[in-house]
């Protein structure tokens, strides 16, 4: 699943938060942002770090997660281009509420809190986009809480795979995520998730290729995850 911006000449193309900006304003944002590259496995920030920048992801994938006092990780979401993240800390000036790790080699732009706040004051429609982003975050967290109450682990694994597949309508979708990371996202042990993956493979819904999962029957996974048909 290689997410790329449709226009490589403009780093903000496809980014909802900046969609309504005039071209000259977009160029000022790009000029103010600092290019960043992250290697696979590299931490971008950890919980309680200063929330000093908004990250605009151009290439790759980022896992956002929380860590328990015993060191267990729970992945909250996986970010792919052309998404942004880190806006919560920017708005309230508080420390990071989660950690972020590159799960693929990534390139991104980092926009400082000062530049972001100045942009919000000068362009009110950006605040609307931020509010939509926060609303989507709240809805996603609410749904995740409900999943842990109403879905068994195989159902959560199926739903996680569907989410990672995104809006693809291809007959096969390759997900670059190993089973340990999948376990962190589904909220189960690696052994239990491996059993669920094996069960899905026996049914012909997917196959594993090393550290990749190739989904071959997305509709079946949607049904197993209790998701409504599109």
Automatic annotation (TrEMBL):
InterPro entries assigned to the protein according to its UniProt record, in alphabetical order? cNMP-bd_CS (IPR018488), cNMP-bd_dom (IPR000595), cNMP-bd_dom_sf (IPR018490), Env_Response_Regulators (IPR050397), HTH_CRP (IPR012318), RmlC-like_jellyroll (IPR014710), WH-like_DNA-bd_sf (IPR036388), WH_DNA-bd_sf (IPR036390)
Q: Which PROSITE patterns match?
A: CNMP_BINDING_2, CNMP_BINDING_3, HTH_CRP_2
Domain named Cyclic nucleotide-binding: residues: 17-126
Does Hydrolase show up as a keyword for this record? Answer: no
**Start and end of every HTH crp-type domain?**
151-219
Question: What keywords were assigned to this record?
Answer: DNA-binding, Transcription, Transcription regulation
Name the domain of life this protein comes from: Bacteria
Return the SUPFAM superfamilies for the record.
cAMP-binding domain-like, Winged helix' DNA-binding domain
What's the protein name? Answer: cAMP-activated global transcriptional regulator CRP
Query: What species is this protein from?
Result: Rugosimonospora acidiphila
Q: What is the lineage of its organism?
A: Bacteria, Bacillati, Actinomycetota, Actinomycetes, Micromonosporales
């Amino acid at each position: 699943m290689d997410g790329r911006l449709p226009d490589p000449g403009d780093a903000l193309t496809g980014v909802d938060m900046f969609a309504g900006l005039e071209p000259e304003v977009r160029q000022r944002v790009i000029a103010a942002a600092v290019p960043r590259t992250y290697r696979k496995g590299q931490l971008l920030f950890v919980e309680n770090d200063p929330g000093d920048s908004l990250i605009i992801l151009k290439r790759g994938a980022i896992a956002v997660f929380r860590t328990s006092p015993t060191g267990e990780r729970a992945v909250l979401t996986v970010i792919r281009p052309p998404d942004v993240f880190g806006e919560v800390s920017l708005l309230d000036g508080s420390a990071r509420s989660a950690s972020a790790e590159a799960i693929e080699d990534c390139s991104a732009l980092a926009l400082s809190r000062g530049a972001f706040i100045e942009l919000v004051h000068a362009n009110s429609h950006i605040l609307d986009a931020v509010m939509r982003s926060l609303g989507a975050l709240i809805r996603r967290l609410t749904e995740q809480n409900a999943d842990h109450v109403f879905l068994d682990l195989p159902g959560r694994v199926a739903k996680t795979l569907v989410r990672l597949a995104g809006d693809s309508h291809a007959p096969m979708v390759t997900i670059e995520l190993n089973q340990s990371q999948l376990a962190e996202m589904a909220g189960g042990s690696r052994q239990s998730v491996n059993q669920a993956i094996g069960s899905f493979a026996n049914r012909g819904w997917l196959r594993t290729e090393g550290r990749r999962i190739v989904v071959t029957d997305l509709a079946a996974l949607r049904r197993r995850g209790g998701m409504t048909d599109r």
